Amino acid sequence: MVHFSFSILLFVETCTETSTMTASEQMRKMLDELMGTSRDGDGGKNTLPFTDTRVCRSYLLNCCPHEVLANTRMDMGICSRVHDPALRADYEKASTDRDYFYDVDALDHLERFFRDCDRRMESAKKRLAETQEELTEDLAEKGNKVLEFNEQIGTTLAEAEKLGEEGKVEESLKLMEKVEELRKLKQEADSVFRSSMPPSSYQQQKLRVCEVCSAYLGIHDNDRRLADHFGGKLHMGFVFLREKYAALQTVVILTGEIMIVHIVIIVLVQIMEAEIETQEDPEVEAVIVGLLMANAYSGTYVLDA
């Protein structure tokens, strides 16, 4: 089983979750996460096993949108399935010994979630196109250039602030130097855009939809607004979910390929047993066994009867 770090998730949850929990609740949650359902010595007799279908398998893999996007503009409410830190700890411990293939369920959940998100994003883009003054292709390209620099500034500034909070001052200062360079490039792009259209039109807020979280971004947004967006819980939650989605796709594909190889080997072994039963000469049997085992490992079957 492949496990993925979820430090981004912890980062985006910390500010809201700890502020609403008492000290005893925080301690109980930490113990559940570390020791699972057996921490009180009762073997978890009063709880569901993590294998129960009522347990959220996306939660077990740290990627349930209900949890990741809680307390954001896109809060989805309480998940219909069970979320329990102790069950997640049980699963993480058990999955070191065998694969439960919960990646498939989590991937299906995220596929449905992102299909719905993409539909909302397209609707938002359509509404935006209907309400904003239509620009020529040349002006739209120049405006998008400014918005692209806005995005780079916001993302870099948010990362610089995060590094500063972690005490990584040197790394943070290097990113702030990059922010200054991006600001200059943005000013140049903005000057080109401004000079290409009437002043009255320029003053109107030009918006576009964030391709990650579908929030609206403005061409006149200042650095603070950009950093708050790209470093905020909603955007970071979507970054985490999209990265997890991509990682799960890779895992599921690899798992499928491995299962196919196992099935091929099983079939070859059955063929080998059938071939041996038809032979009476021990030397012939040994040759057949050697060829079939070699073919099984190579993924081919070339033995001619």
Automatic annotation (TrEMBL):
<dbReference type="GO" id="GO:0005685">
    <property type="term" value="C:U1 snRNP"/>
</dbReference>
<keyword id="KW-1133">Transmembrane helix</keyword>
<dbReference type="GO" id="GO:0006376">
    <property type="term" value="P:mRNA splice site recognition"/>
</dbReference>
<dbReference type="GO" id="GO:0003729">
    <property type="term" value="F:mRNA binding"/>
</dbReference>
<keyword id="KW-0812">Transmembrane</keyword>
<feature type="signal peptide">
    <location>
        <begin position="1"/>
        <end position="18"/>
    </location>
</feature>
<keyword id="KW-0175">Coiled coil</keyword>
<feature type="coiled-coil region">
    <location>
        <begin position="114"/>
        <end position="188"/>
    </location>
</feature>
<protein>
    <submittedName>
        <fullName>Putative RNA-binding protein Luc7-like 2</fullName>
    </submittedName>
</protein>
<keyword id="KW-0732">Signal</keyword>
<dbReference type="InterPro" id="IPR004882">
    <property type="entry name" value="Luc7-rel"/>
</dbReference>
<dbReference type="Pfam" id="PF03194">
    <property type="entry name" value="LUC7"/>
</dbReference>
<keyword id="KW-0472">Membrane</keyword>
<comment type="similarity">
    <text>Belongs to the Luc7 family.</text>
</comment>
<feature type="transmembrane region" description="Helical">
    <location>
        <begin position="245"/>
        <end position="272"/>
    </location>
</feature>
